[in-house]
Write a structure and sequence with these properties.
By secondary structure, the protein is α/β, with parallel strands linked by helices. The chain has helices spanning 17-30, 37-40, 48-59, 65-82, 91-100, 113-122, 146-155, 169-177, 193-198; strands spanning 4-7, 104-108, 131-133, 162-166, 181-184, 201-202.
């Protein structure tokens, strides 16, 4: 019996990765660095520490990662002050269906709480969740399963009675490592066969998950 559904945020519920990547590119350019969009794709869903380490390894120890990070956040904030937060197809309908079934909902995102709450409230999805775990609450980022294990603990549910819904390679590996059945709905970063093999199901959109709920 399904008791808990744990969702990633960016690229899974919110169609925000399409803004995040160019925001990184713009922020890097403003500080004099060329950050290719393809460079960012493998980092989607990663922890703050891993992203920082990767930038410094690629661009050198003088890369102003703190300033670029803050500028990227400001670019994102400025955009969402003027525009709605775009949802992935089926996101609201899926959350509503799970609520109607009495399933606990948990958010587990690598994004820090301040930004996660801002985006989710603007998208009018924040109120659906019984548990929220953000990147600043864990010490290890995805693909480490810590964030999902914490979500399970706070929801008081076991892995075998829970699912994880993810869009990224790192998130899928973390979900599988937590022991949860992991539903992969790929976004920008296309998974390889090894990642797909870790997933319980691979779907094209969240809409496809709604009719499968009774089977879970």
């Amino acid at each position: 019996m399904l008791r808990c559904a744990i969702f990633d945020m960016d690229g899974t519920l919110l169609d925000t990765e399409r803004l995040s990547v160019p925001a990184w590119v713009q922020a890097g350019r403003e500080y004099g660095y060329t950050v290719p969009g393809d460079f960012m794709l493998p980092l989607l869903g990663s922890s703050t520490a891993h992203i920082c380490e990767t930038f410094l390894a690629a661009f050198g120890p003088d890369f102003p990662i703190e300033q670029v990070w803050k500028r990227r956040i400001q670019i994102t904030r400025d955009f969402y002050e003027r525009n709605p937060v775009p949802l992935k197809s089926g996101a609201r309908e899926l959350l509503a269906a799970l609520k109607d079934m009495g399933v606990k909902l948990a958010l587990a995102t690598s994004t820090h709480r301040e930004i996660a709450q801002l985006e989710m409230e603007k998208a009018q999805l924040w109120e659906y969740f019984d548990v929220t775990v953000t990147g600043d609450m864990v010490s290890a980022g995805k693909p480490d399963p810590e964030i999902f294990l914490l979500a399970l603990r706070l929801a008081d549910c076991g892995a075998r009675e829970s699912i994880v819904v993810e869009d990224s390679v790192n998130g899928t590996l973390a979900g599988a490592a937590s022991g949860c059945r992991t539903i992969l709905v790929p976004d920008l970063n296309r998974p390889d066969e090894a990642t797909r093999a870790k997933a319980y199901r691979v779907l094209h959109s969240l809409d496809e998950l709604i009719p499968l709920l009774p089977q879970l």
